[in-house]
Write a structure and sequence with these properties.
Blueprint (H helix, E strand, L loop, with lengths): L1 H4 L4 H23 L3 H17 L5 H15 L6 H16 L3 H92 L4 H29 L3 H20 L2 E7 L7 H22 L3 E8 L3 E8 L11 H12 L2 E4 L8 E7 L6
Parallel strand pairs: 1-2
Antiparallel strand pairs: 2-3, 3-5, 4-5
Helix pairs in contact: 2-3, 2-4, 3-4, 4-5, 6-7, 8-9, 9-10
GO molecular function: ATP binding; phosphorelay sensor kinase activity; protein dimerization activity
Protein name: histidine kinase
Catalytic activity: ATP + protein L-histidine = ADP + protein N-phospho-L-histidine
């Protein structure tokens, strides 16, 4: 203190050293030791010492020590209010020069803005870390669900094959086994008793014919109709699209869907894939719907999204392919002009032979 008193800038040197020691202590206790309470005690001690050896320049150390103590003791959302009251109380007690008060106010405003910004950044960082953890958890869950779906689908296929093979065995196994026995008997009697051998062969023929009829009947019963296949394929395509691109999809079918032929189902399916691709590339939509209406003479299929609409557009490769595919299925393709999204309408005629 004697050396600095002999210098013209002694108070300035004292302030800089005090600030440096205060900042270093705060850093070591708050960051390296990760102890907010110890840093708060350090702030209180620094404020007390600055108050005891008060000089004009130490007002900055004093006020900032008080501010840090308020912050470290967990004022939370009341930090600005408590800090302002504390600083006003200090200024009322020590009564510093006006120029020091003005400089102090500017510094405190800058500190407050920085403090708030840092708090928001820390909050954003924590939210980002939580979002990343949530994303990892959801990805793991999705992977688990996909693996479960694959396993369930494979198990269902194995069970279906087992059930079908058992049904074929029940329908045909006994018939074939009996026919083999009868053929062996006919072979033994073909020379000694031709009439008996002929009767055996006739019985075998009837058994095998009946068995073949049973197999055909079983195949007809096991094979799903075009309606079931068509709806299942459309739902699978829309569900996969929704899962991959987070776009809401809906399927609505009105009327007797049994009247839709396999050719029309296949055309609708291929056009659906094409329109979904166009929606993803050009529309910017977050919702897609497919509405199929079976009326008396026609079938109407509308593919619509809620993205960018336009009164005029140029048909590219995808839309041209949709139009050509629809025409080849004896249908008509329409592109209605609208501003609340983009839609494609397919109209297929219902002929008597298709019903």
């Amino acid at each position: 203190m004697n050396i600095m008193n002999n210098c013209d800038s002694g108070d300035t040197v004292l302030t800089v050293l005090a600030f440096s020691c205060f900042a270093l202590a705060e850093y070591l206790l708050s960051v390296l030791k990760k102890s907010d309470k110890a840093a708060a005690v350090c702030s209180c001690v620094s404020a007390f010492i600055a108050f005891l050896i008060y000089s004009d320049n130490l007002i900055f150390v004093l006020c900032f020590a008080v501010i840090f103590a308020v912050d470290k003791f967990g004022a939370g959302k009341y930090f600005r209010h408590i800090g302002a009251v504390s600083v006003l109380l200090v200024l009322f007690i020590v009564k510093p020069p006006f120029i020091d008060v003005l400089i102090l106010i500017i510094m405190l405003v800058a500190f407050t803005v920085t403090h708030i910004t840092a708090g928001q950044l820390i909050k954003c960082r924590e939210q980002l870390a939580e979002s990343r953890e949530e994303t990892v958890r959801l990805n793991r869950r999705i992977a688990s669900l996909e693996e479960y779906a694959k396993t369930a689908k494979k198990s269902a296929a194995v069970e279906e094959r087992r059930r079908f093979s058992a049904r074929i065995h029940d329908k045909l196994g006994h018939s074939i086994s009996g026919s083999i026995i009868l053929l062996e008997a006919a072979k033994l009697n073909i020379r000694t008793n031709p009439d008996s051998a002929e009767q055996c062969i006739t019985t075998v023929t009837d058994n095998l014919r009946s068995g073949v009829d049973d197999i055909r009947q079983a195949l007809r019963e096991e094979r799903p109709d075009s309606k079931t296949i068509g709806i299942s394929e459309l739902k699978e395509i829309l569900g996969e699209y929704k899962a991959k691109y987070n776009i809401r999809t809906t399927l609505e079918i009105k009327g007797d869907a049994d009247r839709i032929t396999f050719r029309i189902w296949n055309c609708i399916k291929e056009n659906l894939v094409e329109t979904l691709t166009n929606t993803l590339k050009h529309s910017g939509a977050d919702e897609f719907s497919l509405k199929i209406s079976v009326m008396n003479k026609v079938i109407r299929a509308e593919f619509k999204d809620n993205g960018k609409g336009s009164d005029s557009f140029r048909k590219g490769t995808g839309l041209t392919a949709i139009e050509e595919r629809t025409v080849l299925t004896d249908g008509k393709c329409i592109f209605p002009a609208q501003t609340d999204g983009f839609s494609v309408v397919n109209i297929f005629s219902l002929k008597e032979e298709n019903v």
